[in-house]
Amino acid sequence: MKTPIIDFISEYAEKSCVRLHMPGHKGVGNIEKSDITEISGADSLYEADGIIKESEANAGTLFGADTFYSAEGSSLSIRAMLYLAGKYAAECHRTPLILAGRNAHKTFVSAVSLIGIETEWLTPKENASYLSCEITAEDVLRKIEELKRTPTAVYITSPDYLGNTADIEGISRLCRERGILLLVDNAHGAYLKFLNKSRHPIDLGADVCCDSAHKTLPALTGAAYLHISRSAPKFFKENARDALALFGSTSPSYLILSSLDGVNGYIADGYQEKLSAFARRVERLKESLSDIGYTLYGSEPLKITLSAKEYGYLGAEIAAILESGGIVPEFADPDFVVLMLTPENSECDLEKLISVMRSIPKRTPITKKAPKFSLPKRVMTPREAILLSSELLPVSECVGRTLGAVTVGCPPAVPILVSGELIDEDTVRVFEYYGIQKLKVIKTENTR
Ligand SMILES: Cc1ncc(COP(=O)(O)O)c(C=O)c1O
User: Fold this and answer.
1) Contacts with 128 (C-beta within 8 Å, 6 or more apart), sequence order
2) What phi and psi values does residue 413 have, to the nearest 5 degrees?
3) Which of 69, 76, 102, 105 gets mutated to test ligand 1 (max ligand atoms within 8 A of its CB)?
4) Do domains 273-359 and 382-447 have the same CATH topology?
5) Cα(242) to centroid of ligand 1, in Å?
6) Class at the top of the CATH hierarchy for domain 4-268
7) Which atom of ligand 1 is nearest to the CA of 157?
8) What is the DSSP string of 285-296?
9) Does ligand 1 come within 6 angstroms of the Cβ of 105?
């Protein structure tokens, strides 16, 4: 497959032109010469009609969608897709309403706050962690029927941070029957398209989704896609670029764009076979971990989510042992350790992992679970909350107060509580359990 962005940039870098254009480094010194800007011939991401458009079309052919690049992660794609859903509702003379799985990434919360879209939450009956939201199509249907008006869109995060995948097929069927859009945060699942049988949300019936290429494909951090299903209303494809431009930088990184271009070549050049063999290898690795005594969660093929406590440790303890063995996990919290693998990991990496995991003696399981809490009371909308002045207080002093900006680090960047919600004793216990010590709360004069 052609790589027009890479070809253009390497030809330009070889010519050693006098660079009287941005960026200021001029390609001189210990800097990446391929870092260019919108010079003649380089196209322009948000008005693409040259090499970027050609490269995006190549990606679209591979993903079977109308595909647009983001050089600012899935975060940008999420803002764009929510704006598109909001604008689409307005086009249909309706007030936008999004029904979202509660484990949404914080970008979802900031985007609906900034755009001013009303949201309702889908909450699971029982959850191992606030990072998951295990809901069936029937749960979604029940919630839709409870709502006073039909939502514009259902918004699902799948896969989630712990590697759980939702029944996108079932949920998309029921959405389609009711004229509701299905938006999917597939930040962790770009590669799902290329499994022997695609498990990519667009193939399972989603209208729009985001994929972070950088999370599971060999792309630079920040490289992501906005995919629009070819069966989605035409409005989405026609307005996608403007939606991305509304939130994106006017200086998208050409290094990131060329890494997306390179991924097209990588995928076309035997990735599916490579992935298939690697997925089988990871399956065997998971079986070996189970044989050693680890309990694994999630159904995503390339993610390994270990239940630390069931092996007798806190997540941070297992993570520290791994790190002292030269292995750096993606994420750990008190309950889980998450490991992300791709075919770029070598056999040697996998053997090292199994050898360190085997060296950890199994202990009596820790039975203390994450504290439970129910959906908190909403005092005001997230938009109202982020626009009011707030103060930073120790969590223990926050009971009875309303959350301002969400307090959550990355990873996992999934808010426990959303801006505008009331902090009660149960939620304080949850914050403390996850080691969150301070919260931004609305100043009391604003809530009186
Ligand atoms: C579930 C989920 N959605 C969206 C994002 C944002 O993706 P990006 O980092 O590509 O902006 C993340 C990032 O970690 C994520 O975990």
Assistant:
1) 162, 297, 335, 370
2) 55, 30
3) 105
4) no
5) 21
6) alpha beta
7) 1
8) HHHHHHHHT--E
9) yes
Cα-to-centroid distance, 71 and ligand 1 (Å):
13
pLDDT by position in tens, the chain (length 448): 999 999 999 999 999 899 999 999 999 988 889 999 999 999 999 999 999 999 999 999 999 999 999 999 999 999 999 999 999 999 999 999 999 999 999 999 999 999 999 999 999 877 768 888 889 999 999 999 999 999 999 999 999 999 999 999 999 999 999 999 999 999 999 999 999 999 999 999 999 999 999 999 999 999 999 999 999 999 999 999 999 999 999 999 999 999 999 999 999 999 999 999 999 999 999 999 999 999 999 999 999 999 999 999 999 999 999 999 999 999 999 999 999 999 999 999 999 999 999 999 999 999 998 898 888 999 999 999 999 999 999 999 999 999 998 877 767 888 999 999 999 999 999 999 999 999 999 998 766 5
* Cα-to-centroid distance, 270 and ligand 1 (Å): 27
Instruction: Report the CATH superfamily, name and number, of domain 382-447.
Output: Molybdopterin biosynthesis moea protein, domain 2 (3.90.105.10)
Residue 181 CA, ligand 1 centroid: distance in Å: 21
SS3 per residue for 249-306:
CCCCCHHHHHHHHHHHHHHHCCHHHHHHHHHHHHHHHHHHHHHHCCCEECCCCCEEEE
User: What are the boundaries of each domain within the chain?
Assistant: 4-268, 273-359, 382-447
Q: How far is the CA of 15 from the centre of ligand 1 (A)?
A: 37
DSSP 327: -
Which amino acid is it at 183?
L
CATH class of 273-359: alpha beta
Q: Are 232 and 207 in contact (CB under 8 A)?
A: yes
Residues 6+ apart with CB under 8 A from 3: 55, 258, 261, 262, 264, 265
In angstroms, what is the span from residue 245 Cα to ligand 1's centroid? 19
Residue 152 beta carbon below 6 angstroms from any ligand 1 atom = no
Pocket test for ligand 1, best of 69, 70, 74 (most atoms within 8 A of CB): 74
